[in-house]
Amino acid sequence: MTTKDYNYYKQQLAIDQHNLDAEMIRQPVLFHDVCEEVVRLQDRVSRLKADLKSVDANLNLKIRESGAKVTQDAVQAQIETHPDHTALIQQLSDAVYEQDRWATLRETFRDRTFMLKELSNLYSSNYFTRSYSKSGNEDVVNDANRQALASARRERARLND
Known about the structure:
By secondary structure, the protein is mainly α. Helix 2 packs across helix 3 and helix 2 runs antiparallel to helix 4. The longest helix is centred in the first third of the chain and has 46 residues. It is elongated and about 90 Å long.
């Protein structure tokens, strides 16, 4: 996947509260796609680390086989400044950054699952329903409904503890 894909999935985090059934159906597919990308990136990081070890070992052998007496610190300095080593370090750094971005996105999609559940609970309790009092004062009725729901949630939480 590419950065475009990352941006696509990031945009999919928004929840349409008026279309919760479709959002719930899409959630596992989106979450799975993001998880697969995290696994792919973890594999890429692992491969780059293995490549780095191999390149470093080969450079170590070449330096030591040159016949010149050098200290371990000098060998390490030559390895760390070699273009092959620095190129792999840059690739590894980029891969770790991308992996971390997608891992954060995965966690956010996990949180999205809980938000969908909470929104569906609110919908089930008619939280989003507009009610009017006889006087036409919608705010008074909505405030009363919200306070009743909050009180019921606190009571459930108290009973569960």
